[in-house]
Amino acid sequence: MDGRLQGKTILITGASSGIGKSTAYEFAQSVPSGVKLVLTARRIDTLKGIAADLEKQFPKTKVLPVQLDVSDPAATQKFVDGLPAEYQEIDVLINNAGLVRGVDKAPAIQEDDLNVMFATNVHGLIHMTQAVLPRMLKRNNGAGAGDIVNIGSIAGREPYVGGGIYCATKAAVRSFTESLRKELIATRVRVIGVDPGQVETEFSIVRFYGDKSKADAVYAGCEPLTPNDVAESIVFAVGRRENVVVADTLLFPNHQASATIMHRKT
Ligand code: NDP
Ligand code: 8X3
């Protein structure tokens, strides 16, 4: 793993929390000889703290924290175009930034929630992919090289009540991921989909607009995945031999069998 990933430039969106943050630590830990991490999110102070801690714990890893709202297409393109020279050749793009807002059902879905979820989870992921892909395709004498990892969800495979918009965004991610893999089949760019089930992060706090007690209730009687469980799968997929594509991963905690079937201890 260390030899395969040594010196790679890895861009992670949504790295200020949860799965994105754990993925940054998992790469740094798995590659003691060092990687270059570009970490983006809206909360730049949090990212700067993570960057400082990573460089302290893993002296051979270099970290560039950048404030970026992926729902802003112009900012995304400007960010990619303006990357410092030593970070310009992105080897691995982890499209992780995403969120859920609310549990409203039609016809009560709030317009703002609808727009923010699609702009972040779908448009944001597509714009970042479009901004990074041209340089990946030029590498390797035009054969292309690099990995694009899209974080979907069980919600993209199985829609549930109160998740109409979030599930639709993740179904769109799944569909885009599959199209992209097919479109890039004549290149050496790998397209990797990772669909987690229940993971305890800030995800449910965001869903309930900051109400921690409602978020805690989601995990009552359960043992959800940790963000590090997902990070390990991401790093495993990226660390395979270049000819191996871990195309599609679905991860559940042991008590979960589908988006809605969970065994809860009473
Ligand atoms: P967190 O809320 O802990 O992390 C979400 C990350 O996305 C944060 O770093 C946040 O940073 C970032 N983010 C949100 N909106 C934007 C934006 N507009 N621009 C840039 N960054 C943004 O949740 P998770 O770690 O759980 O979520 C990560 C991904 O995993 C998401 O795509 C989610 O849908 C997916 N997922 C989560 C599951 C779960 O149960 N937790 C299960 C399946 C999939 P900041 O606020 O600083 O911008
Ligand atoms: C998060 C999983 O089932 O809470 O994507 O929507 S779920």
TrEMBL record:
PROSITE patterns xrefs: ADH_SHORT (PS00061)
SUPFAM superfamilies: NAD(P)-binding Rossmann-fold domains (SSF51735)
Pfam families, per the entry: adh_short (PF00106)
Keywords from the UniProt entry: NADP, Oxidoreductase
UniProt family annotation: Belongs to the short-chain dehydrogenases/reductases (SDR) family.
Record PANTHER family: ALCOHOL DEHYDROGENASE
Protein name per UniProt: Oxidoreductase
